[in-house]
Amino acid sequence: MNSEVLILNRNFYAIQVTTWERALTLLYLDRAYVVDEEYGTCEFRDWVDLSKMMKDDPRGFVHTPTLKVAVPDVIALKFFDKVPRSEVPFTRRNIYAHYGHRCCYCGRHFPPSELNLDHVVPRSRGGLTNWANVVTSCIPCNLRKGNRLPTEANMKLKVRISKPKFRQGLTFAFRSPLKVKRSWQKFVDNAYWDSRIEEE
């Protein structure tokens, strides 16, 4: 069985994805609830009773000599209410989203296939590949700028280079490519991630 479980803090913010073994351990130790799609919560003993009534479950069951327990999709911690600090992953998709799929030089919108990433200070001149130096650029502007600074190419950035702030709804960085279960969607803000939604 290879079923991952979404962990929420007690305020129902997503904080982590864990294994089904750890999720069931947290439930058994009374440190977490199972959370259903209607935001209802369920203690371990109640979850065991519900599991007995389930004939089939896509996530699978854990069997012991005396119990049959369904693997939950989402659990919430009872006592942890903090939101782990994290950063928006530096990926092509997130850079495009951060600048709104615009060329930072001409200001026009483009589909991803017509955008490039541009090092404002070229790498050949010591420019770093990070949020402080990389912007989106359309292909014509990218070719025009070439291996020069914007001022040398008589070009001006129409945006302020910035690093995006992490969105409260998504409080951790998913591994990529992680399948995001549909039952997780209401707990997860996918504005800044690089994954795919699980098909039903």
**Intertermini distance:** 18 Å
- How many distinct helices? 4
Catalogue the unreliable spans: 168-177, 190-200
Spatial strand order of the main sheet: 2-1-7-3-4
What is the CA-based Rg, rounded?
23 Å
What does this entry look like structurally?
The protein has four helices and eleven strands, in the order ββαββαβββαββαββ. The protein has helices spanning 20-28, 44-53, 92-98, 139-145, and strands at residues 4-8, 14-19, 32-35, 41-42, 61-63, 68-70, 74-77, 115-119, 134-138, 179-180, 196-197. A five-stranded mixed beta sheet has the order 2-1-7-3-4. 16% of the residues lie in helices and 20% in strands. With 200 residues, the chain is α+β, with helices and mostly antiparallel strands. It is elongated. It has two domains: 4-84 and 168-197, no CATH class; 92-145, DNA Binding (I), subunit A (Orthogonal Bundle). The model is unreliable at 168-177 and 190-200 (pLDDT under 50).
